[in-house]
Predict the 3D structure of the following.
Amino acid sequence: MGFLARLRSLADFGRAIYGYQLQSPQPLNPEWNEQKLIDSFFGWVYVCSSKNSCRVATVPLRLYTVSGNSRELGYRHRSLKGAELSRHQTFLRDEKAEVQELLSHPLVDLLNRVNSYQGRFELFELTELSLELTGNAYWWLVPGPLGLPGEILILPPQLVKINLDQRNLVGGFTFGLAPNEKKIPADQIVHFRFPNPNGSVYGYGPAQAAWGSILDYKAMQSYERALNANLGVPSLFISYEGTVEKAELSRIEADWNRKLRGIDKSGRAHVGDSKFKVTPIGLSPRDMSFREGRKWSRLEIADCFGVPVDLLDTENSNRATATQANYVYEQFTIKPRLTRIADKLNERLVPMYDSKLYVAYDENVPVDQAGQLAETVQLSNAGIITIDEARERYGLPPMPEDEKPEPVAPADEATPTGEPDEE
């Protein structure tokens, strides 16, 4: 085997390791498929997936350029400085490089005016919602002038199939149902996905992980709904002494239902002219345990979607627990989802415009403002940072020299008095 052949073989093996090479890419599961996952969009799945997708769509995504490229291109921009610039160090090869946010650019226009049907918020909301329910989301970059995308269409994931080429690599996509299927080249699709430990080219999302709990919750909900509708079990059993003819039983039953059935007749007394015995029929221990089981199923569903229960059950939470829950939610649920989307766009979409460009989300994790302020004051009083450096942390301009306070001498330094020390 020659050098080029070995290199090509290693490249194919690398793609196989990361899930881009399979004999059968279509996920096979007897319990769920993409359509069933989409149809699970109700109840707590709706609550959790909507909360995640709406939050992801709310965080601003911005376009940046490195080393002053925006001046050469002539787009409106603003330079990053201080703490804002330090957040972008991971994108910089040179620590002294300049970074500007591009306020106008064809890519900014594309993301703001997605297509004639959808806007920016709806694009990212549907993208994350598809990821939450199926583990996959697909953008079709419809070709426009100069070979750049003219618009973005988000494809329903249940109607997309990944096609493999002769080397069992991703060779393209098929959208739609027969006989109206459409073949789309691989370079026109941006495929977002949750990681799949099975190595499939398809993602594995929260709804798949919670599928057992979703079925349990649905079954218990259906049982309780049927139970509330009686499920053929009456709430009372009335037995009369002696033998009663069938026609008379029907008349007596209708009379009982007419007088006592309905919420407006609750508490009404009934006096009969015959001897009878009334036996209430209540819920069995199994029926009562279903309600407790629904709580556990809800908790498992929320955990799979990364939504803290304190953000769902506000009855037993307070400001402190809600604040902590929101911090955990933003740090460990929303931030990884934002990173996943930004990384995929920097890999597949942004290089179509310029190699010096990249996109990044604003910081979404809330800051402990009281703690940060106390730390800044302590550092400033101790002389570790200057007052201008402290102001820079909050985006304030330097303080005029005539307004700056006199430096405070450290407490352990003696104040000179000009008198000699006593022997």
Observations:
- The radius of gyration is 33 Å.
- Residues 319-348 form the longest helix (30 residues).
- The chain has a mean pLDDT of 80.
